[in-house]
Amino acid sequence: EGEELPNVHVAINFLIDRKYREWTKLDEFKGKTIGIIGGGPVAVDVAQTALRLGAEKIHLVDIMSEKDLELTLREIPEEEYEYMEYHFGTSTSKITKGKGDGLILNSYKIEWGELNETGRRPLNKVDGSDYQIPIDVIVIAVGQTVDFNLIDIATNNKLKKERNKIDINPITFETNIPGVFAGGDIISNSKAVAIAAIGHGKEAAISIDRYLKGQDLTTGRFKENRMFFAGQKKPPKDFSLKPESLEEATENIQWDFDEIDSMFNEDMALAEAKRCLSCNHYCLHCQDFPAIYSDFTAGEVGSEKGFTTVVAWTDRGKDIIENAIKKGLFEEGSVNEDDLNEAINLKSKRELKILDKTPRQEVLNYIVRLGPATISKIAGILDLEAKKVRYEALRLVQLNQIEMKVEPG
Predict the structure, then answer these.
(1) CATH for 8-140, among 3.50.50.60, 3.20.20.10, 3.40.920.10, 3.30.70.1140?
(2) CB atoms near residue 236 (< 10 Å)
(3) pLDDT tens readout for residues 209-232
């Protein structure tokens, strides 16, 4: 409610207009407060654009928690983040008129319920948590709905849907209509990320090829849920398949549109094209996005104490590991193949084997992946008591796995 009011924009149109049509208005939002419904990467793009056009304050309202948005938040430069205020775990009921040309975001806090029979966690409003945020300009940066008009006409309204998304077979991506396949944001239970859509396209293409040849669509294929193991103990340093771009100085980042990441050179572009699409630094266990088949996976099954088992699934994966060993990045140890084969067998049967991480592992993994942090910050992100984090951190210090120091003030 209220999306039709003046000064309420949709993110995509907002960004396109300011890139191609309104780009000369460098003080368009000077001294103004911007409200953004959403807190993901697109919302951040909107916030950064508004700051460069003079915005004084940005409010981002999102139903997700700070922990859920952790990867997005890490990408925001400090010089910009100080002008942003995130309202985590918050939903918006409506947009109303405020004083003068102003607007009001009518928001409230939410709690996530337990998984229900549909596999979803319902959102529950926290009683008495309603509050208002005075805003000058509002941008809606959340998922958009699908216009099924032409699709329904083409299928005589026979296409089965669930919550305005197409229902598909999760292995074959075939709809309830034989020979009709779907993927991307338009299907139910889909992750709204580009790499997932790429994966859906690949799996659907395999199905279409088999369908046209009269072959079985499911033989030798698995659900998208793949098994992965507990976290690496000590990821190797300076080993990454992801080329690093050169960052420019960002002291005055909020005042101009200068690029802060340099372009790839030829070698970097080739390296980027060859790597696994889901690879981060040290490969966070190749989380098996369906767009590609992982070259290798890593876990603790079958390894000696203090070691991590790495399984190479392809010749390329084998070459990567062998090169890392030659460079001295890995130390070799023995592997219990029976335990490993049992784990792989479980995976082939589409079962998940859950290995709970201890609080100590969680604290160590956080510091290894994200760098130094205070006790209170780690406790908040990992949803642990501060005294528990302090205890586990002290034990890690005793084991010479991390260092701690007291900051003045």
Answers:
(1) 3.50.50.60
(2) 17
(3) 999 999 999 887 754 443 333 333
